[in-house]
Amino acid sequence: MSGARWMDFAGQAIFHTLVAALVVEALVRLWKVRDPQQRTGFRLLALVWPLLVVPAYFLLFPGREEESFRDGRALFAGRHWEDLAFLGIGLYGWWILGMSAFGLGLFLLDLVPWMRARGARSPPWLARSPHARPAQEALARAAAALRMEAPPLAWVDEGPPVLFCTGTRRPTVVISRSAVALLDSEELAGALAHELAHLERRDPTLSWALMGARALMWFNPGVQVLVRAIARDGERVADERAGNASGDRLALASGLLKLFRATEGRGPASAPGSHPLAAALAEPIARARSHDIELRCRALLAPPPHRVPLARMRLAATAVGLGLLLFFVV
Amino acid sequence: MGSTVSEGARALLTMTLVLGGTVAALATLDSVPTWLHGQPRGVRRVDTVEDAERRLQTKVLLPSYFPDTLRWPPSGVRFTRDEGGAVALDFLGKDGTPALLLVESVTDRAIPEGLQGRLAIIQQQSAPLGDGAVLARVVAEDGTLWSQLDWSRGGRRFLLRGRGSLEDLLRMARSTHGETR
Predict the structure, then answer these.
(1) % of chain A beyond a pLDDT of 70
(2) Which residues contact B154 (CB under 8 A, 6 or more apart)?
(3) A302 touches chain B (CB under 8 A)
(4) pLDDT, average across residues A263-289
(5) Is A81 exposed, middle or buried (0-12, 13-18, 19+ CB in 10 A)?
(6) Is residue B170 within 8 Å of residue B129, measured between CB atoms?
(7) What is the DSSP string of B76-97?
(8) Is the minimum CB–CB distance between B44 and chain A shorter than 8 Å?
(9) Is A83:B44 a contact under the CB 8 Å cutoff?
(10) Residues in B touching A75 (Cβ below 8 Å)
(11) In this complex, how many residue pairs, one in chain A and one in chain B, have their CB atoms less than 8 Å apart?
(12) CB-hemisphere CA count at 13 Å for B110?
């Protein structure tokens, strides 16, 4: 593919994601889609657009890229903005450059802390510990409530409170001694049911797939934002599943809040010698995370969300409508 | 059953409104560059005659006679796909003021208005360029007087408007079709 064709591909991938995401978000709000599972379906539709539909347009309909289509049939052609130039570069080129830089920034904002965390020395995971018994029992109870087999438990004997699930082939729940000490038995059962709900949905595998999508579309800010929204929905889905299975939504909300306060909720630590912008960047991120936890707790305190009827029909109609509309956007 | 149908109809109506709004927003966004250029919708600017030929996928017929009172290359090249496609070339005189407009429609249909500019015809007569050819005196928006030739040949329609002598204009028109006089 030539440079101009790559530019067209990047431009369309970015623009189609923006349009698809805006249309989907507008419909989610107007149709009052509050169930996180249903909302994820709509957001996944916007996410697959740049990954599958835009490449399919390029492969199956090469005529869309011709000037006759652009000037005659297209509803919107990004290249028409090339007629306006700044410093010798057309505005379409500037727009792609700006959006790509924004997309890369959003990608690095999550990639760098994730790589740092992977590189940091962490306490060892133990397969067995005499202190792990309460957690083992709570895990067995949560698994029974969710009607699934209890996965192996990895025990962390030291360090801050830790509770998460991991593993694509060998799913495992990791819990630390301090997390068990922090939570009462109902909160622990609720929090473990939340992790089991993630494993039931194969969220660890999905999160790798989403990370792959982000890496592939590093230049696309729409994809970066959508993946974050889908990840947040994943947490809400696990909350709902765990809350319904354990029957104690309040305990789950309380456990969530305690774990958050004991870890991220303490606020960003000031690291000597860190970049001057680090604090400025960390502040809004910390605020967004705390807002996210607040929303999750509020949702758990409310009754389970109502599922909109005809969700599949709505999703199919949205896909067809967007397919027709975005075919004429080049 | 009835409530499901009405729920589905409401959902489709909402979706149609959202998509309709998106279509309107995209069409508006697409028109902005032409508005900023001061061109009517559908008229696009290109840098060279070759660019216009490539975009319209046709050869533009140019006069072989070109009076030395005009500057080459054209100061502006515009094209449109309306009415089957047409291209307009604006030429400046040696003094740097607009001196000639050549519009060529690649079909025998009317010359698209977006390429002609606004003017008033004050006098009109048949021109010695074949059936249907018209010679007119026109007044441009700035009040200047121009001579204008409008004719069809070989399945194409031409318009030549100049401020120079009428003889030069006729000679240019004929030279477009290989005629020397």
Answers:
(1) 93
(2) B177
(3) no
(4) 61
(5) buried
(6) yes
(7) EEEEE-GGG-EEEEEEEBTTSS
(8) yes
(9) yes
(10) 23, 26-27, 30
(11) 71
(12) 4
Reported ipTM: the value is: 0.82
Confirm or reject contact between A318 and chain B (CB < 8 A).
yes
Q: Does A316 touch chain B (CB under 8 A)?
A: no
Query: How far is Cα of residue A171 from the mean position of the Cα atoms in its chain?
Result: 20
The Cα–Cα gap between A177 and A173 comes to 13
B180 touching A, CB under 8 A?
no
Q: What is the pLDDT of residues A33-89, one digit of tens each?
A: 999 999 999 999 999 999 999 999 999 999 998 877 887 789 999 988 887 778 878
Query: Which two three-digit tokens encode residue B19?
Result: 């998509």
Tell me which chain A residues have a C-beta less than 8 angstroms from the C-beta of B29.
Answer: 76
Can you say whether the dihedral through the CA atoms of A218, A223, A225, A228 is positive or negative?
Answer: negative
Q: Which of A30, A77, A310 sits opposite B7 (nearest CB)?
A: A310
Tokens of A113: 């802390």
| pLDDT-based confidence at residue A265 (cuts at 50, 70, 90) | low
Within 8 A of B55 by CB-CB distance, chain A residues are 67-68, 71
User: Which residue in this structure is represented by tokens 């975009």?
Assistant: B55
- pLDDT reported for residue A321: 96
Enumerate the residues of chain A whose CB falls inside 8 A of the CB of residue B27: 75-76
pLDDT of A91-145, one tens digit each? Answer: 899 999 999 999 999 999 989 888 887 777 777 787 777 777 888 888 998 999 9
Shortest distance between the Cα of A278 and any Cα of chain B, in A, equals: 37
